[in-house]
């Protein structure tokens, strides 16, 4: 058994944070007769799970719900976290490669294509997107998306990048959102979401489109293809959804 200061030193978590976890019912160790918190090995294993989820961007409320669903069995959490971290590693490897190529291009050591500049960037490249996706669409939808993308991360990245790049080019050419080529890109985007993420309805697709322009992180990411691309994409999707609903 470990006193709270020992548990804090072992885990790198502050005593104040452990008190907070106990208050939330997230990690409640045994109490001695004099009121001291005593942490068992099982408590520390649970703390490890909590810290992994925090690193992956999960809010404490959702971590509590996930832990409650599985009861005392920690293995499903470990497997889920391993899968998420492995996917993140693959995305980071792509981004590191992209950054190295860009640095080499800036030094004049090589040329870099437009496609290579954006390798590794997708509309869900940030971990915090996970929280927003769960909040909007539910954990089951997000889990389905993760499962569909497993082992296909590069294909997913390329598919989304291709669409956003095409839309950015159309924006530069001054094409209206309702232009046929833009509506074709919207249809491809919806098909790509359905293939690699979840069975997206037109209503949810409309919400996603609005999020591209309204959410600062989505907007910043998509606008890397060209200033205004996020707003333009949102407009293209809005027209597409309206036409499909007619």
Automatic annotation (TrEMBL):
InterPro entries assigned: DNA-bd_dom_put_sf (IPR009061), MerR-type_HTH_dom (IPR000551), MerR_fam (IPR047057), TipA-like_antibiotic-bd (IPR036244), TipAS_dom (IPR012925)
* Keyword Transferase applies: no
Transmembrane helix in keyword set? no
Coiled-coil-forming residues are 68-102
SMART domains for this protein: HTH_MERR
Keywords on record: Activator, Coiled coil, DNA-binding, Transcription, Transcription regulation
Q: Which residues form the HTH merR-type domain?
A: 1-69
- Protein name from the UniProt record: MerR family transcriptional regulator
